[in-house]
Amino acid sequence: MNFILGSSGQARESEWILRASGQAKPDHFVGRDFVGSQIHGIEVISEERFKELITHGNHKVWIGIGNPKLRAKLGQEISKFSGVEFPDAIHPSAFYDYEYCQFGHGLLLAPGVIVTTDVSIGNHVHLNVKSYVGHESVIGDFTTISPAVHIAGNVKIGKRVFMGIGACTVERISICDDAVIGAGAVITKSIVEPGTYVGVPAKRIS
Ligand SMILES: CC(C)(COP(=O)(O)OP(=O)(O)OC[C@H]1O[C@@H](n2cnc3c(N)ncnc32)[C@H](O)[C@@H]1OP(=O)(O)O)[C@@H](O)C(=O)NCCC(=O)NCCS
Asked: How far is CA 133 from CA 94, 126, 148, in A?
């Protein structure tokens, strides 16, 4: 069976991307909210029911959850089930150098994404609508790149990083694991400690 984890915005957009690309038709959303109701004509089931269903057989799972830490927790939990695979969800309007980019599993490329060349992306990374990743950049597992984020060339972004809508970076900097970057922030220097960074140029607020 095919499952999308989540029932809110990112899950709904994931279903739209799968539908637009003709990649797969999900059988169920899996959520805490809306259990028993339908979203886009697809039934929402509980997490408990989902875990019963994936105990046997082969299944495809897309984690439609924007929060990197929650996505990481679920990804690690579910990967213990031997019959589960995590396919990508790639909108037909996303562009990337398919010959020279390296992608992990569970990748989400939303409409209008551009990933140029020699980019390396880990597992369960979400690149949202109209985000851009420049040459030779590296993005770690479970990181979320919100809509309209611009990442220059040779940038290294860690694991479970959240980059808010419209944020951008200059080239050749790095962002450590678990950092949170606010909407509209401009990252001009490497971030070496986890925390929340906002503004132009970005400064740590917590
Ligand atoms: C950065 C962020 C995570 C901080 O959230 P938070 O920890 O709840 O922080 P608060 O809302 O309490 O704000 C703390 C202070 O930072 C300021 N601030 C918050 N976000 C800011 C931002 N993006 N840019 C500039 N200042 C910001 C607030 O105005 C507040 O300032 P004050 O103390 O002078 O009033 C959040 O504001 C943000 O930008 N989230 C991104 C949302 C997003 O892009 N979602 C994707 C949707 S697809």
From this structure: 12, 12, 10
